[in-house]
Amino acid sequence: MPEAPETPATAAASPAVPYAPYDALLLLSFGGPEGPEDVVPFLENVTRGRGIPRERLAEVGQHYFRFGGVSPINEQNRRLLSAIRADLAEQGLDLPVYWGNRNWAPYLTDTLREIAAAGHRRVLTLATSAYSAYSGCRQYRENLADALLELRAEGAPGANELRVDKLRVYYNHPGFVGPMVDAALAALDTLPAEARAGAHLAFTTHSIPTAMADSSGAPDDPARSRPGGAYVAQHLDVARLVAQGVADATGVAERPWELVYQSRSGAPHIPWLEPDVCDHLEALHAKGVPGVVMVPIGFVSDHMEVKYDLDTEAAAKAEELGLPAARAATVGTDERFVAGVRRLVLERAATERGERPERCALGDLGPSHDLCPAGCCPALRGSRPAAAGADWTD
To answer: Roughly what angle, to the nearest 10 degrees, separates helices 73-90 and 335-352?
Structure first.
């Protein structure tokens, strides 16, 4: 998958500090338990305010207990953090990179306190969610606002001058799409030889309430008027890109594919995006499909929802059906994704300086907005302050 070249003209125009005005990068993620004793407290953090009984949390926690009570996400974030730091250093960019989580240590508020105490004032945030939706974008912005307001209320040094921005959603950046194409091809190669030519691609992502999906994206985004809003439109755009990349590489022009969903957690009476991946596997088997590759385009790393919902539940369903199935890797710390993060940082910095950098994006939807407008990806109920957007006042 091609990437935009760094031309001599672009390099000559770069300032002495190409990431200015930013002086720190924040990796912002979901977080996860790192031992059995962490599981229920972690789930209490995730579900706070929803009135879910502790007994139910213990039941949900069995997913984590199957893996020793440890979510893989924190270790994956440590690797990504190291990879980003190494990539920046190799390029001669002395940009400090920090890491904070929404729901477990290192907590976002503590990380921002550390950033402010170190003297940084302009922070650019990379969220480990590539798409537009309340839970994947605006909720992270709300968490940033909560942390900033808390630090200001406690009088933390530098908190009043701390400004936080967020990188645009990057689902269609070459650094994200290219690794997904190669991962799908690698998984396809693990299927029995006789199943490969006719194998279907099942692109998986997190199911969300249909009402949340329909309102995803900016108010003036044409995709928001479609069923599923920007959330579904963005996933379909990536799925088409990856399916085409697989078709080009394998010579199978008509490679059937579908966007399917996983990890539903809501009440049964509330409509969520469908079909569920396990239901989809049953439908493929009923059609006589010889094999399937599950491609988790909705996720950045192989965290618990990938390891359990796909590698455990969906894999068990495929085995029960006798349907040959493979699961493609997520982008993780692929060097193209890590380099893509760097390019996104430099792109946003140049924009902040009033320049007009090339904004790389594949597919039909083009690059997303840098600054989320008012009303972007709203919550289903209520309204809370959200930083890093047009409706936030520093």
So the answer is: 60
In a domain, residue 386? The reply is no
Residue 133 has pLDDT above 80, yes or no: yes
Give the distance from CA 188 to its chain's centroid: 23
Are 132 and 125 in contact by the 8 Å Cβ rule? The answer is no
Is 255 a member of any domain? yes
CATH number of 238's domain: 3.40.50.1400
Better-predicted residue by pLDDT, 316 or 15: 316
Q: What is the predicted pLDDT for the residue at 14?
A: 55
CA neighbor of 114 nearest in space, from 92, 74, 147, 86 = 147
Residue 1 has which token pair? Answer: 């998958």
Question: DSSP letters along 26-73, please?
Answer: EEEE----BSGGGHHHHHHHHHTTS---HHHHHHHTHHHHTTTTB-TH
Nearest-CA neighbor of 120 among 154, 157, 149? 157
The domain in which residue 323 lies consists of 174-327
pTM of structure: 0.94
How many domains does the chain fold into?
Answer: 2
Mind giving me the DSSP string for 107-120? BHHHHHHHHHHTT-
pLDDT of residue 9 exceeding 50, the answer is no
